[in-house]
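Hi U.,

Before I forget, here's the chain from the pilot set. I'm dumping it here mostly so it's searchable later in email.
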Amino acid sequence: MQSLDLDAVRAEFPGLSRGWTLMDNAGGSQILRGVVARMTEFLFERNVQIGGTYAVSQAAADALAQGRYALAEIMNAARPEEIVFGPSTTVLLQNLARAMRHTFAPGDEIIVHMGDHESNIGPWMGLEEFGVTIRRWQPAADGTPLDMDALDALLSERTRLVAVTHASNILGWVNDVAEVGRRVHAAGARMVVDGVAYAAHRAIDVQALGADFYVFSLYKTYGPHYAAMYGRYDLLEELETLSHYFYGRDRVPGKLEPGNPSYECAYSAVAIRDYLAGIGGAPGRAGIVAGFDAIRRHEDGLTGRLLDWAASRNDVHVIGPTSNPDSRRLPTLALRVSGKDSDALCRIMDQDRIAVRHGDFHSRRLVETLGETGHGGLLRLSLVHYNTPQEVEAFIAGMSKAIEG
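Structure:
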């Protein structure tokens, strides 16, 4: 069982040396030194268009292929061609909805979980104008986990797709996506999963989850401002091309990457994989899984300390689950402090160089359901494995002072 060497971990993230305690990682994590090195290598040594016969072009193509392979290992895809690159999760899901549009007939139904980030809601609701019926899977008003009975009530013979989040970027709770997938597939439908709030914390296994499509952002998972989508190969083949007319449906995944992916960003995924595997002490998928297990154990300690602190105060209210059974709670906590404006609290923490955030975090429908849109919205702190127990104590001391001041 691997343990986390925090000194070694933090040395891989140059951005941590700026004197800030960074607890806004769900908005974007720090970038790995190795990621920047891979991008620099590509730009200096391989920066030409792929598809040529000459050696530099072949090296560029190899870099892109390595990036796909690395992400296939990170997500446990069956083959690297199941990895589609794009500038952001939002764009990838908008592109997926556009490419899937022809597969829906008027009256077909899409179930959308309304507690998700807007990137996995808006693109599907946009298909209403083409005759698709959107069935709204409502989150609970108290922020409790997914209601499977509510899903069963919405599933029908007309259901074609269910859109759900692996973990809420507000509630911090890991949803039982595998169970959702079993129910969805039993109904003859497909499942698209937003994994953005999950991917930095736990190993993804798209095959075990039964995900037909799975999307997450590299810039929230220690990489550059870029994103990747897994799609089961046979399903990707069904989709319309988003590229030039001479890109046929069989041109997977290129037909879904109009204009070419960013080669240097794709290549940088190799460094993310190698870093995670290095934590796990083994190459490839086995190391990734072991690395995330070490990350989980460390993060559980941070999460537990924060939950204990919040429980010790009558004026601090955690939104969503307040315990961490079976490591289902990520170190992403949204808080409401009685009688305090979240914006004002963030500004006080700024003075201590502790970075947290307030608002709705583009999960506005969930925040509206929770009734938490006023007074600056929610205050959110979001940690990852490079955060330390000392930083948690600094947050607790600073926030306690801000509340009481």
